[in-house]
Amino acid sequence: MPGTGVIDAASKANESSQQPTQTAATATQKASRSDYDAAYEHDKKVRKVFRLRIVYNKKGCVKSGHCVLSDPYDFELDEEFKGILKEGAEQPGKVPGIFIKEIETTEPHLAINAAKTCTPKVIAVIDLETGKRIAP
Ligand code: SF4
């Protein structure tokens, strides 16, 4: 069939043009994962205690529920299916709906995953030891 050759050639060209980009992207992901996330991997042997601050902006919640699936110790859903930061303190000020909670945990990946999987990225996690934001 005459059209098949064109399609094959086009898809081969497409494959060959995409391959280096995909490989480079994968290499970048691997590099950033090892550099960035390795320090917060769950390690049953070490059991290091991390001090984290979770910051949550409830106004931006779109009710996807990922936070509860990732970290049921720190998140639950209200009657409207919006996320609640358990025992989070609402911050006084002009902008309502900002909640903060500080935790000590040997399983930092739970809060980190909640922040990473939250679709509108309204959850942030800060490592109190370094003062740096570690997720999302
Ligand atoms: S993951 Fe984010 S958007 Fe989804 S319910 Fe939790 S806070 Fe709301």
Describe this structure in words.
The structure is a single chain. The protein has 136 residues and is an alpha+beta fold. It folds into two domains: 2-40; 50-135, 2-Layer Sandwich (Alpha-Beta Plaits), CATH 3.30.70. 38% of the residues lie in helices and 24% in strands. The chain contains three helices and seven strands, in the order αβαββββαββ. It has helices spanning 2-37, 66-70, 108-117; strands at residues 50-57, 75-77, 83-85, 89-90, 98-105, 123-127, 132-135. The strands form two sheets. A five-stranded antiparallel beta sheet has the order 4-5-1-6-7. Strands 2-3 form a two-stranded antiparallel ribbon. The longest helix has 36 residues, at 2-37. It is globular. Residues 1-22 have low confidence and may be disordered. The site of iron/sulfur cluster has 14 residues, from helix 2.
Strand content: 15-25%
Look up the CATH topology of the largest domain: Alpha-Beta Plaits
Strand neighbour order, sheet with most strands: 4-5-1-6-7
What's the pLDDT, averaged over the residues?
81
Could you give the distance between the termini?
50 Å
CATH structural class of the largest domain: Alpha Beta
Helix content: 25-40%
* Overall 3D shape: globular
**Structural class label:** alpha+beta
List the uncertain runs. Answer: 1-22
